[in-house]
Give the backbone structure.
Amino acid sequence: MKYFILFFILIIITGCSAVRTQLTNEEVIILGNQIHERVLTVDTHCDTPMRLPALNIGIRNTNGCVDLPRMAEGGLDAEFFAAFVGQGARTPEANEKVIKRTFDIITNIHNAAKQYSSMAEVACTPADAYRIEKTGKRAMFIGIENGYALGKDITLVKKYFDLGARYITLCHSRNNDICDSSTDSLEHNGLSAFGKEVVAEMNKTGIMIDVSHMSDKSFYDVIKYSKTPVFASHSCARAMRDNKRNLTDDMLLKLKENGGVIQMCILSDYVKLDPTAEKRNAEMKTLTDKYGDRRNIAPEKRDEYNAARAEIMKKYPQAKAYVKDAVDHIDHIVRLIGIDYVGIGTDFDGGGGLADCKDVSEMKNITYELVRRGYSEDEIRKIWGGNVMRVLNKVLDYAKAK
């Protein structure tokens, strides 16, 4: 009888966002589990494909952040697996190599889905995700992180789309031929001429434009030129954490006008200031200047790099933020632009992770915190997947109508 009464009360709470009843921790867990099971849960960014094909995603691993068993444990229905390519030289020879690398990573994602077809399927549309969810399997979407993967070949947009890619992050930590990065010096003053062509082609093809990592001017240019809603696959609110990777309040307001969505990232340094961050980041930059992007280091230099990096981390250990700190960003975004424009993009296996959400098996902790703060089931459904699926549908519909 106790649990029947509790269940009845929780049903009332679930359907009414105005109700902000203080729940006990037991009630939060019960309601959180029920909601988490009922809604489509989508994470829009992980860098796990960097570990393929060596990583066996069909078994529960003790390192890394994402595999299919832990997705099931954490109740994550869909994951955007990013084909990441670190920025390198912008020459025909380098472009040829990075394009091949991108095709190889996408092939690895498809092969993993085929190898574990009883556990997962590649998804290309929101309808796919909802259908796959009903089967109890995991949906594997594909994204591309860094428009460097295009080189200067506009025809690759359609080729990547045909292979299942549903977003492209236009740049990464350094400028490319498309636009300026938020963490590099000014070069194009926003989108380049080629970048404007890329935006138009992505609109025409049906690929979401990811504005994470872009400079502020690049962001505003995308908002100006895109005919479809855009999204930030893994970014936070700069008002809550003053980091160039995060979006300012004005950018968030422009994102709302565009009809897009920001996917709250759980990379700790984007979430909350770490007192040791400035000194650690300065030494890490020196390391990067010497070896290049850590994800593209030559095999013969990797041990040397890892030892130097471990020494820096020992000297300046990182103080991780918590789920409550990340949800503070969601609260801010919701207060500023509303519940329809925020989602979740962890950046797992690319630096993402919190003290109490270290890998994909702990994703329910985010739902528990949302419940604890009084978000309704309908609101949580939008945050966990509804908003980004709306954007993807609009992008695909626009392309179909062209």
Observations:
- Residues 25-273+320-401 form a domain with the TIM Barrel fold (CATH 3.20.20.140).
- Strands lie at 42-46, 78-84, 120-122, 138-145, 165-169, 208-210, 231-235, 261-264, 342-344.
- The longest strand covers residues 138-145.
- Confidence is low (pLDDT under 50) at residues 1-19.
